[in-house]
Amino acid sequence: MTWAFFYLAVFLGGFTLALVGGLARRILHPSELCDHVVVPSHEHWASLRTPRADFIVSLLTGFGLTALLLHGLTRLDPDHEMLISAAAGVVLALGIRAWLCRGVKPTDPGSCVEGRAVVVRSIPAEGFGQVEVEVCGCQVKLAARSASGRPIEAGTTVRVVDRHESVLVVTAEDTGDV
Question: Are the C-beta atoms of 131 and 117 separated by less than 8 Å?
Fold first, then answer.
């Protein structure tokens, strides 16, 4: 295997993951990534939509592309190609993170308390579901549970009455039960 093939494989792998993970869409629509709102880790920890995954994908893509260009345009030895490419990958990854966060202001997820949300994943009795709520202009999905312990179906508009870490406590608008 040649160095050029290795660099091409790293670039294509990173680029493919960026497309599959939706990084390109999030670069164009940064409000979909609200870094300062905590999301439930059990659902998003290994996801391709996390800031950590974006950084790794950007690093791989930047490293692969830079190494491929250096390999084809210069006569550097592989050690120097990798060193320069790794630095370029880190710079690209940090630049993309800055770009993604450009329109997102630091916010407290508690600011959505007393707000309205829509249930996107049904909340079972004494269990957890998911709601979509606006926090400082960002539409975010957060874990939620019913304040009354009764189930709430998807599509129901709810009122946020409390928050415990990243879990919102909600009540259906029509019942007003707390």
Answer: yes
For residue 4, what are its two tokens? 């050029």
Same-domain check for residues 85 and 114: no
Helix (H) or strand (E) holding 113, with range, is none
Task: Let me know if residue 177 belongs to a domain.
Answer: no
Query: CA-to-CA distance for 29 and 26, rounded, in angstroms?
Result: 5
Give the three-class secondary structure for 79: helix
Distance of CA 167 to the CA centre of its chain: 17
Position 178 in a domain:
no
Q: What is the CATH number of the domain that holds 154?
A: 2.40.50.140
Per-position pLDDT tens, the chain of length 178: 799 999 999 999 998 888 877 766 666 655 444 444 444 444 444 444 566 777 888 899 999 999 999 999 999 999 999 999 999 999 999 888 777 665 544 444 445 556 888 999 999 998 899 998 876 666 778 889 999 989 999 999 999 888 877 788 899 876 554 4
Residue where a domain terminates, one of 100, 125, 157? 100
Q: What is the pTM of this model?
A: 0.51
Smallest CA-to-CA distance from 78 within 150, 6, 155 is with 6
Give the Cα separation of 177 and 131 in Å (integer).
18
Q: Are the C-beta atoms of residues 106 and 36 closer than 8 Å to each other?
A: yes
